């Protein structure tokens, strides 16, 4: 976008999306603690209603721990196809106001509305209209942040949930960020935050004032970037969906993984999520990438091109396992993995992915993916046996 137009970025985030959809659809559970996730105690919480969150239940928590904290919670099996359908309604509303929509997951997106202000008003007015349309047409609430950059807009949207609207003007960015706790920084999880506090970084203002060299020693290459973000320096553009180069899923772990089989299981879960989204989008892809972030924030990736575009879990995970073997085993054991991710690129419409002599395994995988999607769309709780206890909420690319 031209810099002649003042940047106005919105981050819109649906409030407890999965759980809110379930409460909307079933009036008998409205106002009650609802947990979306597998019924097995070794399963993982995909989402929790705000009523459940008051008891300390959160996404990615084990179901066993969630039920200990909130034993009277109502557990609902996730309906991913249904959530995807509701998500399309929400994104259709976004596109009324700007073509510059970058979806981060089913329930959140960045919007660049700088060029839309002549038609719809300033950023705050546009955000309010979007929130109202979501409430009136979809029956759900969303929170929004309005700011000159992605980083600030995303933080702002999270400050007054649910149903919040926070506006940060260009001249207020550093003042807005400075007092916020260090945990507001992207990537600052339960493992890294104590290390940051021990090093004397307690707020984003502390990061903004820190020396890049010292930060690099403490956090690796991510350290100086954190300082730039904490100062409000974020020139990243909103990248519209039509320009998306890949579909991916990743997850940050509460405890570092040091066993290759454990990482492979996580990659299977992520491959399944990617395949599900690709099926819903009607896409297939030939490029597969695996990324691992180690406990010291070092990020490594491995990629490969497949002879045929794929869209099924088995094919994606097979490639991911091959790529996992290309990472240095000693790093995994010595440092531990704090994040893993799988993405598929070189995307084409699935109908264009057919070859004259298709791989029978790929064809079987596509048919299986279609069958699983159909069953989930009818509310059936189906997943692969290897994923029981693994399919939780993750961070979608």
Task: Outline the structure in words.
The active site is at 108. Its cofactor is Mg(2+). By secondary structure, the chain is α+β, with helices and mostly antiparallel strands. It folds into three domains: 1-169, Alpha-Beta Plaits (2-Layer Sandwich); 178-230, 5' to 3' exonuclease, C-terminal subdomain (DNA polymerase, domain 1, Orthogonal Bundle), CATH 1.10.150; 244-396, Dna Ligase, domain 1, CATH 3.30.1490.100. The chain contains 16 helices and 13 strands. It has helices at residues 17-25, 50-53, 63-69, 80-97, 117-120, 123-138, 150-157, 173-177, 192-198, 204-209, 212-219, 222-230, 260-281, 313-324, 329-335, 360-377, and strands at 9-14, 34-37, 45-48, 74-76, 101-105, 108-112, 142-147, 165-167, 246-257, 283-294, 299-310, 337-349, 395-396. It has a five-stranded mixed β-sheet. A five-stranded antiparallel β-sheet has the order 11-10-12-9-13. Strands 3-2-4 form a three-stranded mixed β-sheet. Strand 7 (142-147), helix 7 and strand 8 (165-167) form a beta-alpha-beta unit. The protein starts with 8 loop residues before the first strand and ends with a strand. The relative contact order is 0.12. Mean pLDDT is 85; it is low at 376-397.
List keywords for this structure.
disordered C terminus, globular, five-stranded mixed beta sheet, 397 residues, Alpha-Beta Plaits, 40% helix, five-stranded antiparallel beta sheet, Dna Ligase, domain 1, alpha+beta
């Amino acid at each position: 976008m031209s810099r002649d137009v003042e940047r106005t970025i919105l981050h819109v985030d649906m409030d407890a999306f999965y759980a809110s959809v379930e409460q909307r659809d079933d009036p008998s559970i409205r106002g009650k603690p609802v947990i979306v996730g597998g019924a097995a105690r070794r399963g993982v919480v995909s989402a929790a209603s705000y009523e459940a969150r008051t008891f300390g239940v959160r996404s990615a928590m084990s179901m066993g721990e969630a039920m200990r904290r909130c034993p009277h919670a109502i557990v609902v099996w996730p309906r991913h196809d249904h959530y995807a359908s509701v998500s399309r309604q929400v994104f259709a509303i976004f596109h009324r106001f700007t073509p510059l929509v970058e979806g981060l997951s089913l329930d959140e997106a960045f919007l660049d509305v700088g060029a839309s202000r002549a038609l719809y008003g300033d950023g705050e007015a546009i955000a309010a209209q979007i929130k109202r349309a979501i409430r009136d047409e979809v029956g759900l609430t969303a929170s929004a942040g309005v700011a000159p950059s992605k980083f600030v807009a995303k933080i702002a949207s999270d400050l007054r949930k649910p149903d919040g609207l926070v506006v940060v003007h260009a001249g207020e960015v550093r003042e807005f960020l400075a007092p916020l706790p260090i945990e507001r920084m992207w990537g600052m999880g339960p493992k890294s935050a104590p290390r940051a506090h021990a090093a004397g970084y307690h707020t984003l203002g502390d990061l903004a004032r820190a020396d890049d060299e010292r930060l690099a020693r403490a956090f690796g290459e991510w350290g100086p970037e954190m300082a730039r973000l904490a100062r409000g320096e974020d020139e990243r553009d909103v990248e519209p969906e039509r320009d998306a180069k890949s579909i991916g899923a990743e997850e940050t772990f509460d405890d570092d993984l040091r066993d290759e089989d454990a990482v492979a299981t996580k990659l299977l879960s992520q491959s399944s999520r990617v395949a599900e989204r690709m099926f819903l989008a009607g896409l297939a892809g030939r490029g597969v990438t695996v990324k691992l972030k180690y406990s010291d924030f070092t990020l490594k990736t491995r990629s490969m091109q497949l002879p045929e575009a794929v869209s099924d879990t088995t094919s994606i995970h097979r490639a991911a396992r091959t790529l996992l073997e290309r990472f240095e085993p000693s790093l995994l054991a010595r440092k531990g993995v704090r994040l893993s991710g799988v993405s598929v690129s070189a995307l084409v419409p699935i109908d264009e992915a057919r070859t004259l002599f298709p791989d029978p395994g790929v064809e079987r995988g596509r048919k299986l993916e279609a069958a699983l999607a159909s069953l989930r769309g009818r509310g059936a709780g189906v997943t692969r046996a290897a994923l029981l206890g693994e399919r939780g909420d993750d961070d979608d690319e």
